[in-house]
Amino acid sequence: MTKHVMIIGGGIVGCMTAMELVNRGCRVTIVERNQIASQTSGESSWAGGGIILPLLPWMYSEHVNALTNNGANFYRELSQRLQRETGIDTNFEQSGFLLLPKFDIEAAQAWCTRNQHPVQSVKASSFGVQSESGEDALWLPTVCQIRPPYLMQAMRKWLEQNNVTMLEHTELIPLKQTPALTEWQTVSGETLTADQFVVTSGAWSFELLKETSAKLNIKPMRGQILLYKPQKNLEQMVYREGFYMIPRRDGYLLAGSTLEDVGFDSSVTEAVRNELSTKAEAIMPELKNQPIIKHWSGLRPGTPENLPAIGAHPSIENLYLNTGHFRYGLTMAPASAQLMVALMLGETPKIDATPYACAG
Ligand SMILES: Cc1cc2nc3c(=O)[nH]c(=O)nc-3n(C[C@H](O)[C@H](O)[C@H](O)COP(=O)(O)OP(=O)(O)OC[C@H]3O[C@@H](n4cnc5c(N)ncnc54)[C@H](O)[C@@H]3O)c2cc1C
Question: Were both Cys, which of 15, 89, 318, 333 would link to 155 (CB 3.0–4.6 Å)?
Answer without folding.
Answer: 15
